[in-house]
Every structure is written in C-alpha cells, then in structure tokens.
Amino acid sequence: MLTAVAIAVDGLGFAAWLFLSSVGLTLIYGVMRILNIAHGGFYALGAYSSAWAIGLYTQTGNTMALTYLIIPLAALIAGVVAGLVVERGILRFLYGRDEVLMVLVTYAIFLILEDVTKLIWGTDSYVAYQPAYWLGSIDVFGLPYTVYKFLIIGVAIACGLLLYWGLNHTRVGKLLLVVIEDREISAALGINVTLFFTITFLIGATLGALGGALTAPEVSVVPGIGAEIIVMAFAVIVIGGMGSIGGAMLGALIVGFARAASVHLYPPAELFSIYLVMAVVLAVKPYGLFALAESRKI
C-alpha cells in the first residue's frame, strides 16, 4: 500500500516537473517547427537565476513569503532576455531552413548558454532550499512530502489550463493555430507570422526557465543541469507527439509514473524505463500519441 502511494505521489510530482520543463519545447516545435535543443540552456538559466536570487534575498533576513514571487520573476527575466537574444539575434535569420540545420544551430546555442551560466555564476553548486522547507511537509498515508512538491503540481496544472484556454478561447490563440496549420497562407491573409514566432519563442523560453526556477529549491543547481532536462523533455514530447500540448501532458504523466515505479520497484532500471516506454509507444504510434497532422501540399 505504501509503495503504491509513493509511486503515485512521486510519479505525479515528477510528471509536473517534466511537463513544466517540456511544454515550452513542444510549443516552439508546434508553431515554428524547430526542435530547440537550446531549451536546456533556458532551463539552466532559470534554475541559476532563481537559486542566486533566493540566496541573495534570504541573506537580507526578510520574510520568506516573497521568495515565491522571486522564483517566477527570475524565470521571466531569464526567459525573456535569453529568448530575445537567441530568437532576434540568431534564429530569425534561419527561418525556412532545413530542420536538421536548426537542430545543429540550437545545439550550438545550448553549448554557448552552458558556458554563459559558468561565466556568470561560476562552477560551484547553488543550493536554495529555503522555499521548499519553509512551507513545511504533510503526511500522505504516513509518508512525508514537502508542501512545495504539491505547489509545483498545482503550477503545472495551472500552466496547462492557461495554455489550453489561450490557444482555444482567445483571438490570438486562434490566429496562432492558423499559423501552425499553414504559415504561408497565414502570411497571405495578413497575419504577422514573424511576430507570432517571436512571441511563441519567448513564451517557450520563459516556460523552460520557469521549470528550472521552480526546481531550484529542490535540487542542487550545478553545471550541466540543462543537458539532463533536454533529454528527458525530448522523450516526453516524442511520446506525446511533437507539437501537442495535450501530448506533452500525457507524455509527462507516462514518463513520470514509469520512472517512479522503477525507482520504487527496481532502481537500476530508472533511466532504462523511460526509454523503454518511449520505444514501445513509437513502435505502435511512430509519431507519438497526439502528433499534429501534417498538411499535404499539392
């Protein structure tokens, strides 16, 4: 019984973290058809910015409640600044190029961002545990969990609902769906496709940074933290279907529960379980569970 509870709670918590870290990646791919490897760099920038800001603020001795505003603010600044530099400075000159070239370019950007984090924050680890422990813990059928874990789950649900509402029930969202369907016809209809690309990239970068910023109080922020998440995020969006928000949510749940089950039942298979699930899904659905339909040009 306790094992099942642990798998359920840990799986849900891991899934929430994965969804927040990967939904920006699938959003960018869905709109721009760019598999943005640099997403891992945005995640790392968010994590470092959050940990550094929390550490700086807690030294002042002020109330801890404000740290829960510092975390999203750090993610917003890191995501918007880095996203603008990358999209306006590099990617806008490459739109329409081969997708493989875009992968190589964003991988190079990821390596640059990894070095940028080292230049700004050094190679030492940052620990910002205060927000996670200030809220305390609760018992779930006798198993203690930090309240902060459930806060992350709540944020993930809120982000998912907000994205769904924005895409399906707002004028901007519906125009974005038109751009996703066919960018050439969208441009012919007078839609500013370039502006939509910029906004989409900034939202995706900020979501990646938010995933890192929210994770910082639960982990030790160290160099290379972005490389781990980009592999996990890629597995999530491939399982769910690249470009699908709902697919990212389902993929995160599948990966989260698979990892939690392996950790509690057979720890040596922790990483293997994720890729086993991905292989099984792709064997049945080669383009993922909710892959976007590709328009056929005549």
Question: What would your notes on this structure say?
Answer:
The protein has 298 residues and is mainly alpha-helical. The N and C termini lie far apart (57 Å). The protein has one domain (2-284): ABC transporter involved in vitamin B12 uptake, BtuC (Orthogonal Bundle). It has helices at residues 2-32, 39-58, 67-89, 99-121, 130-134, 147-169, 171-181, 183-188, 193-215, 225-240, 245-265, 270-284, and strands spanning 126-127, 137-140, 143-146, 220-221. The strands form 2 sheets. The protein has a two-stranded antiparallel ribbon. Helix 1 (2-32) packs antiparallel against helix 9 (193-215), helix 1 (2-32) runs antiparallel to helix 11 and helix 3 (67-89) packs antiparallel against helix 9 (193-215). The chain is 73% helix and 4% strand. The protein contains 12 helices and 4 strands; from the N terminus they run H-H-H-H-E-H-E-E-H-H-H-H-E-H-H-H.
Question: Descriptors for this entry?
Answer:
298 residues, mainly alpha, ABC transporter involved in vitamin B12 uptake, BtuC, two-stranded antiparallel ribbon, 4 strands, 4% strand, globular
Put the structure in a nutshell.
It holds the Pfam family BPD_transp_2. By secondary structure, the protein is mainly α.
SSE pattern: HHHHEHEEHHHHEHHH
- What is the arithmetic mean of pLDDT? 86
Low-confidence stretches: none
Fraction in beta strands? under 5%
CATH secondary-structure class:
Mainly Alpha
Q: What is the tally of beta strands?
A: 4
Shape: globular
Strand order of the largest sheet: 1-4
Give the total of domains: 1
Q: How does the major sheet shape up?
A: 2 strands, antiparallel
CATH architecture: Orthogonal Bundle
Enter the CATH topology name. Answer: ABC transporter involved in vitamin B12 uptake, BtuC
Q: Helical proportion?
A: over 70%
Return the structural class.
mainly alpha
* Alpha-carbon distance between the two ends: 57 Å
- The DSSP helix count reads 12
Radius of gyration, in Å, reads 19 Å
